[in-house]
Design goal:
The chain is of the alpha+beta class. It has a domain of 69 residues: SH3 type barrels, CATH 2.30.30.100. 26% of the residues lie in helices and 31% in strands. The protein is built from 2 helices and 5 strands; from the N terminus they run ααβββββ. The chain has a 5-stranded antiparallel sheet, with helices on one face. The chain is elongated.
């Protein structure tokens, strides 16, 4: 085997192939799945800010919708920390803790009393 092809994956080294048709189909699929970030007005931003500040003091769970790798995601949890200088929040529930950039958030909702975290 030539040294230029040796990349520590001996099983599949000789079968590297990507057809142009596969590449164009993959690019079309990725473009179709890209999420359009909604524009937020001042009232929505103020409401999200109010909910975040109340959640830190009031200790109730929030449902946070945000964009991660061009795809919409949502997490439910308690706000552990807000860092206004680095612009991120930290959500925690019983299973995991996640740090979310404030610029990626597009919706925040207060969880109802009967909803699970």
């Amino acid at each position: 085997m030539s040294q230029s092809l040796y990349r520590h994956n001996l099983l599949w080294e000789g079968s590297r192939m990507f057809l142009p048709e596969h590449r164009t189909a993959l690019l079309k699929q990725q473009q179709a799945e890209e999420f359009a970030f909604p524009l937020l007005d001042e009232d929505q931003l103020a409401e999200m800010n109010r909910l975040l500040l109340e959640a830190v003091d009031g200790d109730f769970p929030l449902l946070v919708r945000y964009v991660h790798h061009h795809r919409p995601c949502e997490r439910c949890g308690f706000v552990q920390k807000i860092n206004p200088h680095e612009r991120w929040i930290r959500l925690a529930n019983g299973r995991e803790t996640v740090t979310i950039a404030v610029s990626a958030i597009y919706a925040i909702e207060k969880m109802a009393d009967g909803d699970d975290v």
